[in-house]
Design goal:
With 264 residues, the protein is of the alpha/beta class. Helix content is 42%, strand content 14%. It has 7 helices and 7 strands; from the N terminus they run βαβαβαβαβαβααβ. α4 links the parallel β4 and β5. The longest helix is centred in the middle third of the chain and has 27 residues. It is globular.
């Protein structure tokens, strides 16, 4: 059996580090755990879920040997600008970012307001752009280093309905930002979108209703958290993908829904 050579001439490779926003619970947590299983050190971002974040850190540390949590309000520009430097200070370097955190509040064209739009744009779009910018600047300080950003989007961008208009606009802007960032940050940083379908239930759906809606797709099933996490891991590993979005939804984007899943 061969063993890795470690010497000043052949130093041991650094363990890769990924910052996952919104990683304390739900889909962000599943992504964090999947990446930890794949050997990534995970920087767990959270806003208010302190205990959930601690649990995710402990679980990631058991899988990958190290993890740490970082609290930040992604609607606050100063907090966002300070986030990546804090991760670098704690963990030494960052190789990738997964923008999973998301503000998701219901409004319609009838109830739309500038305040609702700005709240979603700040947290869902602006934060992801600033973090991508920060990763690119950080990688510039590391000779030959390359990295990647994965932005979580939504199949409803390809299957629009009037519900959650501010949320949808913020995700549409982020999908456009994928293209612009992929051009602007190349070749150091790849930028990839991952768009799930109905993946996890919520307080707005009974278990029975969720199961029925989850089956509404050409494949008879929408995405699971494991499906989405595996796609994020794939996007981080594949060196030839940038400036595009991978839809992981069982084909739900091919169907027409007049309302959001939570209101069907």
């Amino acid at each position: 059996m061969s063993h890795p050579v470690t010497s000043p001439l052949f130093p041991a490779p650094k363990q890769r580090t990924v910052l996952v926003t919104g990683a304390a619970k739900r889909l962000g947590r599943e992504i964090a755990l999947a990446l930890a299983r794949a050997g990534w050190r995970v920087a767990v971002h959270y806003r208010d879920s302190v205990e959930d974040a601690r649990k995710t850190v402990a679980d990631c540390a058991r899988l990958a040997g190290a993890s740490a949590s970082f609290r930040a309000n992604l609607a606050n520009e100063t907090a966002v600008r300070n986030l990546l430097p804090r991760v670098v200070e704690e963990l030494g370097h960052v190789d990738a970012i997964v923008n999973s955190a998301s503000t998701f509040e219901h409004d319609t064209p009838e109830t739309f307001s500038f305040a609702a739009m700005e709240k979603h744009m700040r947290a869902n779009t602006g934060a992801a752009i600033l973090l991508s910018q920060a990763l690119h600047a950080h990688l510039q300080t590391r000779p030959e280093a390359e990295g990647a950003v994965v932005n979580l989007l939504d199949q409803k961008l390809w299957n629009p309905n009037p519900d959650f208009i501010s949320y949808t606009l913020s995700k549409a802007a982020l999908e456009s930002a994928n293209t612009m960032l992929a051009l602007a940050l190349a070749p150091r940083v790849r930028v990839v979108g991952v768009a799930p379908g109905l993946t996890l239930t919520s307080h707005m759906l009974t278990p029975e209703k969720f199961e029925a809606l989850h089956k509404l797709s050409p494949l008879g099933r929408s995405s699971t958290a494991a499906d989405v996490a595996a796609t994020v891991a794939f996007a981080l590993e594949n060196q030839s993908i940038t400036g595009t979005t991978l839809l992981v939804d069982g084909g739900q984007h091919l169907m027409k829904f007049e309302r959001d899943f939570s209101l069907l």
